[in-house]
């Protein structure tokens, strides 16, 4: 065990993956010798050479196109998109290509070795284009997996699973927590299964669900609510696609109440999918409407960032509203 | 990886403007339209077997195309797309490669696939989306793919395979396979951003990839000159990327062979990516959904008929004594019979089982997909007549 | 009035818009003299010249980039994307640029004159890449409007509204109905307001909601259900973003039941947003879970297209299930 | 629209390979590093007023950059991005334009904006995201925009403005405005697919647009040569598009002026899109978030110091008697004082009202947005301390 922040945990996962197999490649804008603008890939060029960890030209559609080709050749392609906000030029290569590669070929070819890493999320005074949480844009795409960790331990275990998973994975890194979140992390390899939500805390009155950086907000809100005597079950979804319907519905069948929090704008966010599914599966058990605590429907703002965010106070209020319904 | 070349910063003190006229890229032709060689032309490596195989494959593909266009007209398949006029490009370039080289096509390269040995039955199974189709009936006709033959499954979105080819070739280089990737695309697809990404990245990483642009004058109804691009075609772009580039007559089997052989050597031995622009003409409509009389003239089509790649090769082979009229006719009849027989066979093969609907989305179907499939089957059981393709053998 | 099919209605809207203002431009792949692969723009070059209706090079990101620039200059840019499946290379120009143009500039600049027309949807043996219904991919994007008509009359009125609306609009044309749907359409200009759903038929037992080509399926299903004695209220959403929460919730408050049908895969589809919102706003009035009848979570298939589609039988069954809950 | 040029199909019978060496694009320089003119150089149109204005603007921007980097270090603003070393590019090119021409920048063209007359107060209001910011405090510092000055609001996604410039220029041409659009971007952004789309479309439509590539050697940490591209920079790509192209010394005010003046003439009078590649060096870090010592050497930076565009211009002006040390110092002191005063002022201006959060998403706020705002206000009223920027004047 060692104390690591979230960035170090990611770096450690990349390091172990590259040590394990010669054909694991890491690349993206500025990810080479410099180690990336957040330094997630630092040290990898020194260790594995400039053919294994390298810079790309500045073209996201090319990065993912190249990565798709490399993965289809049988290599492990770990591509970084510098900010989640800049993943959209690669949208076609992801939703039309990566996601459909195996299906359309009848399993003659696949890009299972593809992992796309990208820092996402707000709270860093980044405005429209350094703050977005684009998970929902991808979650409508059968064939993709989408994963996001809440802390260093989760980050390392989930990233190692993502890299060696037999499907293309979009791995979203909560950049607000890169240095802010620290914890004990094993130095050796370990994995956390994809597709399984994590019941972070058991409770009986209400289920509070989130993912990624939102978990920090959620846990703070829950602390406050528990002080009021509300017993909260807290779930980290971890894998957004395919999501763990079973764990979530089991919890709601028990508690009868659900609050979901997400960073992204509310309309069309992934919280809506969860709410739609849960109201269907738990209809007779629901004691109050499923609440979504979320960004509002505006481009991610700068000067009103604090007001915009789905912070712990808003989650706390939603818990209260749900309890008092 | 990076090569350390310096920018040209030679100084001038009067503005020197460059434009499309600054470079003149001529076109390599070895076999003239009349079926004779240019004197003193640089010849590719070839022997009789090779040329006969190229010829027979071209003829096979042309016949297949004809029959399948007819089959589409009869309503037996939903869609087809012919390569008439461009057979030399795909067949002779495939002939210049190693069978272990990866082929990534756009959709009009059935010639390369046939050259690799895809059987007429395999073609038919794909075209009829039946349960023997390697692609499990999931994509429209002509979206072939075959891992055994190193022919990447075609995908409809244009240009996406170009940066993928760069990535594939990168893997081949790192794995020291001694193989390369050839990537075909139309001059229309070369307008996509993915083209730019791909060529630039290949030039930076110096990977063994051959970008083979089929410039056939049209992208559906859009003429290339002045509407697809304002410059002199695709080749001069290669210079911008600092990439080995050549323009060839795409209707000349020998020019295609010659250029692709050298391209492969550059790619595999020197890790030099190569751009080939082959000039040709799409003699059919874009596909069976298209009627070209709406946007081009008969004269123009006729101008190109005299440049036909198959006629040209046949003339030369006959002169050479490597082919006679009888062989041509016999072979045509034979192919036609095979195609028709395979067609009838493939038509009878049932559609893939409904379970295939959820396979291969992921390596394993997810719980949600299994649930969705079960619900669907329940529904089909309730209304079997509404889903005749699958209701017969749902359990 | 004249009898028109859906294509002719669209063509008529384009024609009137171009006649009305000199700075309305129509362009896209093959949309020039040839009139587009579906012929929606036919005759416009002859009438307005090759500078007003023209071909573009084959580059969707360029088409929308160009259109954004042209609209920001004050013109009306009506860009066609040949198939909805090919809109993804332009995703960045749409979600990061068009949608945020006005907001990010503090209203110094806008692309209100932008309209993106694209044929969408399945049922035409088009497989993965000529069948998709990508509305949900865009509906998570504040700043965009998304509109889809169900028949020729709606098509013309909504398209004219879209072109002259002061916001960027994605106008999705149900290609399965291009020639199949016909009806009486006024020859002169008229508009149908954006953002207002249409109560196609009033009813008391259940609300059945859809949009675009799905309305045909919905109406067939409702016919069958009414034969069983179920009184259905049928709503065509018409505008997907911003959607008419008021009309939908008013209807559900009345009927207590809701079935939503969409062509796209279920997970992350827009039906999920509607379900999430309605369960929140109508919680105490719901008599059964909100049902989503939808494509399943696979890339749009070819040989199993019939099985995949959210057809009238599936909608009918959902209505029955909801009634018998 | 389409020009009817034919492909070059001159025939050769031996393969002729082209590559980056096939074209040599030299660099226009008029003012030497030592501050004297090249003999016999082609001069731009200029007079003393123009040069003084260029100089003063360059000096203003350099001072502004210095002060704001310092302000960022002090934590007074969150982010800044300097244009040190590249002031000649943006200022002298803006000086070659008409004020009615549209400017679309990447983010390092504060010089062009200052030249147009953006005031120090306006700069500050944007940098402090206060309620006087034309952009209503919605974007990060340096994302300026001003409709009155025909300066399109900057957006962070790279390359997106390039095809937009083509579209804007198309509108200018159709409206017969006699104006053009200039579009700035870095050599890094030129790798984006949008670059390819933009230049190709401009070449097809022949619109009055000037593509001005600032090749400053780096995209954040990525060096241009061999890692951003494999060819000789950006200029040779223009040839591929059949576009008028020139490479210039971006640190030479006179070369920038000369080339941009002619580019504007070509654009406006002949509807010829133009590509200018200006060679320069990003003398600061990429932004205040960056530390370049991690990826480049002191020597390299020093090599470029002697080419400094402002020093060079000042040397020449002093020789010419158009400038003296005193003016430089006085002007610097004056600008510094103005900047500091404006900074202090802007700091005091409150953030935009919370209502601005939902304005301008659409031309009118939707019912749902109004509802969301109301809920938010309710929440802020409950927890005013948690939202100090807005809770004070929420009603
Ligand atoms: C991204 C994308 N945009 C549009 C289309 C529709 N489309 C299919 S083929 C075609 C023309 C392609 O022309 P070209 O690349 O020259 O190839 P050719 O058909 O001439 O062989 C178009 C526009 C597509 N398949 N993919
Ligand atoms: C689409 C996109 N990808 C990545 C980034 C992150 N980014 C911001 S600036 C930059 C480097 C740009 O380099 P260049 O175009 O050469 O301009 P310069 O900074 O040198 O002026 C990068 C990668 C971005 N803003 N947008
Ligand atoms: Mg073509
Ligand atoms: Mg740069």
From TrEMBL, chains A, C:
SMART domains to which the protein is assigned, alphabetical: Transket_pyr
GO biological process terms held by the UniProt record: branched-chain amino acid catabolic process; response to nutrient
Primary enzyme class: oxidoreductase
Ranges where the Transketolase-like pyrimidine-binding domain occurs: 4-180
InterPro entries assigned to the protein according to its UniProt record, in alphabetical order: THDP-binding, Transketo_C/PFOR_II, Transketolase-like_Pyr-bd, Transketolase_C
Cofactor: thiamine diphosphate
Gene Ontology molecular-function annotations: branched-chain 2-oxo acid dehydrogenase activity
E.C. number: 1.2.4.4
Keywords of this entry: Oxidoreductase, Thiamine pyrophosphate
Role of this protein: The branched-chain alpha-keto dehydrogenase complex catalyzes the overall conversion of alpha-keto acids to acyl-CoA and CO(2). It contains multiple copies of three enzymatic components: branched-chain alpha-keto acid decarboxylase (E1), lipoamide acyltransferase (E2) and lipoamide dehydrogenase (E3).
PANTHER family for this protein: 2-OXOISOVALERATE DEHYDROGENASE SUBUNIT BETA, MITOCHONDRIAL (PTHR42980:SF1), 2-OXOISOVALERATE DEHYDROGENASE SUBUNIT BETA-RELATED (PTHR42980)
Record's protein name: 2-oxoisovalerate dehydrogenase subunit beta
Organism: Idiomarina zobellii
Phylogenetic lineage: Bacteria, Pseudomonadati, Pseudomonadota, Gammaproteobacteria, Alteromonadales
UniProtKB/TrEMBL annotation, chains B, D:
A Pfam family assignment: E1_dh
Keyword line: Oxidoreductase, Thiamine pyrophosphate
CC cofactor: thiamine diphosphate
Residues of the Dehydrogenase E1 component domain: 57-354
InterPro entries recorded: Alpha-ketoacid_DH_E1_comp, DH_E1, THDP-binding
Membrane-spanning ranges: none
Entry keyword Transferase: no
Catalytic activities: N(6)-[(R)-lipoyl]-L-lysyl-[protein] + 3-methyl-2-oxobutanoate + H(+) = N(6)-[(R)-S(8)-2-methylpropanoyldihydrolipoyl]-L-lysyl-[protein] + CO2
GO molecular function: branched-chain 2-oxo acid dehydrogenase activity
Record EC number: 1.2.4.4
Family designation: Belongs to the BCKDHA family.
Role noted for this protein: The branched-chain alpha-keto dehydrogenase complex catalyzes the overall conversion of alpha-keto acids to acyl-CoA and CO(2). It contains multiple copies of three enzymatic components: branched-chain alpha-keto acid decarboxylase (E1), lipoamide acyltransferase (E2) and lipoamide dehydrogenase (E3).
PANTHER family, per the entry: 2-OXOISOVALERATE DEHYDROGENASE SUBUNIT ALPHA, MITOCHONDRIAL
Listed name of the protein: 2-oxoisovalerate dehydrogenase subunit alpha
Naturally occurring in which organism (per UniProt): Idiomarina zobellii
């Amino acid at each position: 065990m060692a104390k690591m922040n979230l960035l170090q945990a990611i770096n450690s996962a990349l390091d172990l993956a590259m040590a394990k197999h010669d054909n694991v490649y890491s690349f993206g804008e500025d990810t080479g010798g410099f180690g990336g603008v957040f330094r997630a890939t630092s040290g990898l060029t020194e260790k594995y050479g400039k053919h294994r960890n390298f810079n790309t030209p500045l073209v996201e559609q090319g990065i993912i196109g190249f990565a798709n080709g490399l993965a289809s050749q049988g290599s492990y392609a770990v591509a970084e998109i510098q900010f989640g906000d800049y993943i959209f030029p690669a949208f076609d290569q992801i939703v039309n290509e990566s996601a459909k590669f195996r299906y359309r070929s009848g399993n003659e070819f696949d890009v299972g070795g593809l992992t796309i890493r990208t820092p996402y999320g707000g709270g860093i005074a980044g405005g429209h284009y350094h703050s977005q949480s684009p998970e929902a844009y991808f979650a409508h795409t059968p064939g993709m997996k989408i994963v996001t960790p809440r802390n260093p331990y989760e980050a390392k275990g989930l990233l190692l699973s993502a890299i060696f998973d037999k499907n293309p994975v979009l791995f979203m890194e909560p950049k607000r927590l890169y240095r802010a979140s620290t914890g004990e992390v094993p130095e050796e390899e370990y994995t956390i299964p994809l597709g399984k939500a994590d019941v972070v805390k058991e409770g009986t009155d209400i289920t509070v669900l989130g993912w990624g950086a939102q978990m920090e907000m959620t846990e703070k809100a829950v602390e406050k609510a528990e002080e009021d005597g509300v017993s909260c079950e807290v779930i980290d979804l971890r894998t957004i696609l395919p999501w763990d319907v079973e764990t979530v519905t089991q919890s709601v069948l028990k508690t009868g109440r659900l609050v979901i929090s997400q960073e992204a704008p509310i309309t069309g966010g992934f919280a809506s999918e969860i709410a739609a599914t849960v109201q269907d599966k738990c209809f007779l058990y629901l004691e109050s409407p499923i609440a979504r605590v979320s960004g509002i429907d505006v481009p991610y703002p700068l000067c009103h960032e604090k007001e915009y965010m789905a912070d712990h106070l808003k989650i706390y209020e939603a818990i209260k509203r749900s309890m008092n319904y | 990886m990076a090569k350390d070349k310096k920018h040209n910063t030679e100084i001038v003190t009067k503005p020197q403007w460059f434009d499309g006229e600054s470079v003149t890229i001529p076109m390599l032709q070895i076999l003239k339209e009349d079926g004779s060689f240019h004197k003193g032309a640089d010849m590719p490596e070839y022997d009789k077997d090779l040329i006969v195989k190229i010829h027979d494959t071209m003829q096979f593909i042309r016949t297949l195309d004809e029959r399948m266009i007819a089959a589409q007209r009869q309503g037996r398949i939903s869609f087809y797309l012919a390569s008439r006029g461009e057979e030399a490009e795909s067949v002779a370039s495939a002939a210049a490669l190693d069978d272990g080289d990866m082929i990534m096509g756009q959709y009009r390269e059935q010639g390369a696939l046939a050259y690799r040995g895809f059987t007429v039955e395999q073609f038919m199974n794909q075209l009829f989306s039946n349960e023997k189709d390697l692609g499990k009936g999931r994509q429209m006709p002509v979206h072939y793919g075959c891992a055994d033959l190193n022919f990447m499954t075609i995908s409809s979105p244009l240009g996406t395979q170009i940066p993928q080819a760069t990535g594939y070739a990168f893997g081949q280089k790192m794995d020291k396979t001694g193989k390369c990737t050839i990537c075909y695309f139309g001059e229309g697809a070369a307008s996509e951003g993915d083209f730019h990404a791909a060529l630039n990245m290949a030039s930076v990483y110096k990977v063994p990839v051959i970008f083979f642009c089929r410039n056939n004058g049209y992208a559906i109804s859009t003429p290339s000159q002045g509407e697809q691009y304002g410059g002199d075609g695709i080749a001069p772009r290669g210079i911008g990327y600092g990439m080995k580039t050549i323009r060839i007559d795409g209707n000349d089997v020998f020019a295609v062979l010659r250029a692709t052989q050298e391209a492969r050597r550059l790619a595999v031995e020197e890790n030099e990516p190569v751009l080939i622009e082959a000039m040709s003409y799409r003699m059919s409509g874009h596909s069976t959904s298209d009627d070209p009389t709406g946007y081009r003239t008969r004269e123009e089509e006729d101008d190109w008929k005299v440049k036909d790649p198959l006629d040209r090769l046949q003339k030369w082979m006959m002169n050479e004594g490597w082919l006679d009229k009888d062989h041509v006719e016999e072979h045509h009849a034979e192919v036609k019979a095979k195609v028709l027989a395979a067609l009838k066979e493939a038509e009878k093969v049932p559609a893939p089982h409904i379970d295939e609907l959820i396979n291969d989305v992921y390596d394993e179907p997810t719980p949600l997909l299994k649930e969705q499939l079960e619900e669907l089957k329940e529904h089909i059981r309730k209304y079997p007549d509404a889903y005749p393709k699958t209701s017969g053998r749902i359990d």
